[in-house]
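Form 7-S
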Amino acid sequence: MANIHVSAFTYKAQAKANVLLSKVKVSANKELFKESKEEEFNAIWDTGATDTAISSKVVEQCGLIPTGKATINTANGERDVNTYIVDIELPNRVRIPAVAVTEFTAVEGSDLLIGMDVIGLGDLAISNYEGKTCFSFRIPSIECTDYVQKLKARQQAVSRKIGRNDPCPCGSGKKYKQCCGN
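Output:
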């Protein structure tokens, strides 16, 4: 793993969020189009979308040139749309080059839908701790996040005799008597 470059970002909302939103930068793929204008847009992270899609606003502001056509299925039925090859920069300079995207009708508050084609390149974690949504994405995937295994490990650590002044096995950094042992 020493030679693997891992990129990541975390977004923390001030309250519980019903939609995962982030800022992203989009430009025409630099390998295909040497002259490309990069612009920033709001993106929804949509685990229900197979592929990433961009609005006509993104197409216009970035001066994108279609690379083909595709038939997409939406809640309103099938339709033919333009396709593009774009470079996407997520927060914290997490770059994903050469993403094949389709054009869609914008969703209020967002000009991109980040689909499973991008999400599946890495790991996406979502938590709602203390009523505040936090989501984090890293690329590439470097390990399996298994909450069941973490609980089992914690239960095994608690089941062995723990001294009251020992570090708490939950990982809080507090003494056991001041954390889970009170």
